[in-house]
Amino acid sequence: MDRIDLKCLTALELSDELATLGEPKFRAKQIYEWMHQKLVVSPDEMTNVSKNLREKLKENYAFTALEQVAKLVSKDGETEKYLFRLSDDNVIESVLMRYHHGNSVCISSQVGCRMGCSFCASTIGGLVRNLSAAEMLEQVYSIQRSSGERVSNVVVMGTGEPLDNFDQLVKFVRMLTDEQGLHISQRNVTVSTCGLVPKMRELADLDLAITPALSLHAPNDELRKKIMPVANAYSIEELMSACDYYYEKTGRRMTFEYSLMEGVNDSVECARELCRILKGKNCHVNLIPVNPVKERDYRRTVVTNVLRFQKELEKGNINATIRKEMGTDIDAACGQLRRTYMQAKEQS
Ligand code: SAH
Q1: Is ligand 1 within 6 A of the CB of residue 110?
Q2: Is 138 in the pocket of ligand 1 (CB under 6 A)?
Q3: Which residue spans within the chain are E strands per DSSP?
């Protein structure tokens, strides 16, 4: 049987688990803080825990740690891209972005992805497996350790569909924002989904104050089906009603992501249609000139047309910003570093 991973246990679960070893509650609290506040990589570092107990922990439990395979820093120093190896040899990527308001880390939620979006590099090899809550946490912890700087924002926008790994995602959010852990504000945690409607509703029913983002990328079903297979399962009408439900339940403003692809979804007509479907919503649109992926032939919309699109949204009273590009010189975009690494490995 697989050993229980100590880093995957919430404070309460850890307390219950250690009680089976006859350990008191305060000891569980100390150990939890070693892992989730002091970010130690091994029980050996827990200096106020007896050697005897440390040995027991090492013998009987798993303790997730990521091995840093590569760290690439962009020329301007604002972006750092990390490649981590998991205990089963899979690799995942995460990104640190330094903004004036603080450090933001973009994490992966799965190894690969099965959603099949046609413009995305992360899904090309399909889904390998879900990440555990500890493996998601460790991406943030490892980057905080490696950079020596506090992480204040986390975006779940790396490889994978977070709502396709729902239980571990929710656990991750709870532990990341726990006051016994890094205590990042829930408002500073963004979870992006391609639109798994039932899971969006389930998420709305939980008591979380996270910021939701929906990858829309098209203003009608016909076009969306061409670029996102998930659109065959859920219509835009169903999506919009799930967004309304989310807003009613949580009061959190929704961000709609819209990757602009030349000649595909960047016309003035598309912008007008987008205004019609978002009309009256308390929302924000993030326009992202698509990052060209070499296996696909999408081209990014030229700047003048990005601005034209934005203007059209503003005319319709829809608030829209153009995403600042970071780290393109280090393959930071959307699963490309992991792919480059795996291809190099295959060829060697
Ligand atoms: N599966 C989730 C989160 C991961 S993708 C989701 O779909 O939201 C994070 C964001 O990057 C999504 O909006 C996704 O559509 C977008 N994206 C993926 N590939 C891209 C590319 N090549 N260029 C621009 N945006 C891309």
Answers
A1: no
A2: no
A3: 67-73, 79-85, 91-99, 102-106, 110-112, 127-130, 153-156, 189-193, 211-215, 254-260, 283-289, 320-322
